[in-house]
Structures are given as C-alpha cells and as structure tokens.
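[Meeting: bench + compute handoff]

Bench side (C.D.) handed over the final construct sequence. Compute side (W.E.) agreed to return the predicted structure before the next meeting so the bench team could plan truncations. Sequence as handed over:
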Amino acid sequence: MNKNSWFIPVVIVILNALAIILQWSSLPEILPAHYDLQGNAGGTMPRSILLLYILAGAIICLSAYIFGRKKQKLQRGLVILLSGICLILFSSTMVTLTSGTMPIFMLAEPVILLVAVIGCAVSWVKAGKKEK
C-alpha cells in the first residue's frame, strides 16, 4: 500500500465538510433527526452537531493513518474500514441535509458497514497468510 491509498477516505471527509459548509447558512438552528423510512423525524439536534461529523471523520482518518504506518500489513484493511465509516458519516449528513426525504441514504448505512467490515477482515486474513 502506498500513501495514495488514503486518498479515498480523505476525499469522502472533504466532500462531507463541503456539503455541510455549503448548506450551513440555509439550515435552521435545530434540525430534525432520526428519520424513519417514510421520512418522518423522530427527534431533533442542533445544527452544530454536523460539525462533529467533520471532526469525527478527520480524527478517524488521522488515527487510522498513524496506526497503518506502524502496522503495514493491516493498512489495506484499515483503508477499507475507514472508507466505510467515512461513507456512513457522509450518508448521515445527506439524510440530515435532505430532511429525511432520501431514505436510500439510511438504507445504505448498514450495507456500507457490513461490506467495510467484511472487506477489512478479508484483507487482514490475507495479510496474515502472506506473512507465513
């Protein structure tokens, strides 16, 4: 793995930040949250919570990059898992910004997580076999 492999998760975090920043002034102070599949909100949150999505993505990227540099054999799996987590954060942002009118984003989250975890596990198993 080279340093360019971290490009995808970093781009996802940047896209998430851009989506939030571009919509920030048009968002109300209190946003509906926790949508059901019909697009009905089951709770609320302050819009400042969206900034935590950006911060969480950046911290996750940095932490995984630092860990991946020390554990080269785990790096590919980390990038796969990290990309999945960043996509889930991005999906949550899109659900919030579209006021729950795009339920496809909610349905995608468990699928993304499952694929990311499986991809990470397969990568780590393969890395362990190559080591032997």
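W.E. noted at the follow-up: The longest helix spans residues 104-131. C.D. will use this when planning the next construct.
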